[in-house]
Amino acid sequence: MLIKEIPKSERPRERLIKYGVSNLSNEELLAIFLKTGSKGISVKELSINILQRIKKIENLKNIDIHTFDGIKGIGEVKKEELLVLSELGKRIYLSSGQEALRQYINPSFIYNDNKYLFYGLKQEYFYVMYLDNKKNLIERKLLFMGTIDRSLIHPREVFKNAYLCSASSFICMHNHPSGDVKPSKADLDVTKMLMEIGRIQGIDLLDHIIVSDKNYFSFFENNLMEPYGKN
Q1: Of the candidates 63, 96, 129, which is a domain's last residue?
Q2: E strand residue ranges, the chain
Q3: pTM of the full structure
Q4: Most buried in the list 106, 123, 186, 210, measured by CB within 10 Å?
């Protein structure tokens, strides 16, 4: 059914005005965001097809530019718009999460608090979590993408951001898209390098956590780092 064939009072925009945005279905919200369908396909049908592809609305955070390949009516522009919607949602979640203090002293908590950053990624992403002197999270920063290697991880970027946000310590986190979280030689080398420089700079590396969608490896939990509670 085309939008123009729906009784005016039941169209998504009219329902938004009448009932409020929180009372709209996921399908209606997507229809308003997308604005139009394409030849022979209404925006309502397009929204349904998108939701069927991702199965659950929370999976919208995991999409990439190819997620909706093959769906009639989803061209490059709409793919880009959906990707932007996904990224905005992540940033809003991240910003709102920082309103409350998050004390990073437990690897399991840190993993669960940040694993959404890595869902669906096909390459390695290297984040640094900067902490104050009470181990509260100050800022998360994506610093590098691609295969993690000592030659590619620039300490100046890691410590420059530490100085900019007045961090007392930091935690590194990156993903292994293969699902195997066992540290590679490059992971070990990068961790050793950042530990050594951190001691000189007085900004300690507390942990390096390698993640997959379902598991993690903590250098700290495997007795390869100083205790989180170190003063």
Answers
A1: 96
A2: 125-131, 137-145, 169-175, 204-211, 216-218
A3: 0.62
A4: 210
